[in-house]
Description:
Blueprint: E1 2-12, E2 22-38, E3 44-48, E4 54-57, H1 71-83, E5 91-97, H2 107-119, H3 130-145, H4 152-159, E6 164-169, E7 175-179, E8 184-190, H5 202-216, H6 233-253, H7 257-273, H8 280-291, E9 296-300, E10 307-313, H9 317-332, E11 338-341, E12 348-350
Helix pairs in contact: 1-2, 1-3, 2-3, 3-4, 6-7, 8-9
Amino acid sequence: MQVRAPGRVNLIGEHTDYSDGWCLPVAIDRECRITAAPNADGVVRATSAELPGRVTVDRDGAIGSDAPRWGRFVAGAVRVLRANGHAVPGADLTVHSTVPAGAGLSSSTALSVALVLALLPVNAPERADRDRLARLALAAEVEATGVPGGLLDQMASLHGRAGHALLLDCRSLSIEPVPLPPGLAILVVHSGIARELADSEYAARRAACEAAAARLGVTALRDATPDRVADDPIARHVVSENARVLECAAALRRGDLAAVGRILLAGHASLRDDFRVSLPELDRLVDEFVAHGALGARLTGAGFGGCVVGLARDTDASACLDATVAAYRSATGLPTTGFRVEAAAGADVTG
């Protein structure tokens, strides 16, 4: 069996998913692939083409103390599937991923989605329901990391569509594919600072959003109005970001690339000033993108490091990317890498 699960870039809609809000991710042509072969031992073994160590998960879902850190994801998938009533058979897994780790491009989610698809029995009803698959993959990732995430990343990986962004309503889990206009290039540059959600303030931000919703007497911050959150920067970001998602989707539909760029810049300013998840290096990278011809740019992912996404006209894309990387590397001395991504189809299984 061969399994493929893409990473994602989120164009706009950061830290809104766990407040029942809207997001606008794009599944990308960087992906995790797993080759799975059954074995008769009843244990799950895994090796990675990129990461050191071998992982063995026993029949109880336990791994040895000397297992590599990425083995937690294999064990997490096994435990969650078994907790949901699935008999996980023995399997030998080979993992290969082109999604850079710690970059805010959902490398962990791509791995978790691929593991769930590789280990889920072929007759499991979840295979016909991608929303249920997303919940299983999220549960496996939370089991592995202890970080309470939303469903943005899993839904993007499973529902991706080539040439489209996905307008995701995180309350209803409805998805509207939004065509990306011709001539729009999506560029990604790594800040050189790895992002580790478990070591960040992600959980604290989520708790602050839940506390703000409780204080306002609403189910989630999606239901709050701008006037009610004007004095709360954390809540103000979520409410304004939801509005930006809907504005960005509308701008993409009408092909207004300049408006899309302005919306991304406003989103970064809100993440920097209100939600306070940016870093000086991410701010510098956004500035370099704009200085070298991008329509707009912003941090993508939870923040605290990782990547910046920039949008450029196709005719300007190569020059913009090269100049941004060179200028940022010169200014910071950090080991920067940049690349262009294309909108890709969602996860699939062959063989």
